[in-house]
Amino acid sequence: MKKTIAFIFGGRSAEHDVSIITAHIPIIQSLIASGQFDVWPVYIAKDGS
Questions:
Q1: Domain map of the chain by residue range?
Q2: Interval 2-47: pLDDT, tens
Q3: Most CB atoms within 10 A, among 6, 14, 28, 45?
Q4: What pTM does this model have?
Q5: Distance CA 29, CA 22 (A)
């Protein structure tokens, strides 16, 4: 059975754009490719919404 994880990225930080890029390619894709996780990406906009 796969574990379900929420992956939170983005946010109000000055590193907002870097967070988006690094979340998708190396991290989320690797978790999905492992076949061990159901990944729920949670994006936080620059305004905090």
A1: 3-44
A2: 999 999 999 999 999 999 999 988 899 999 999 999 999 999 999 9
A3: 28
A4: 0.78
A5: 10
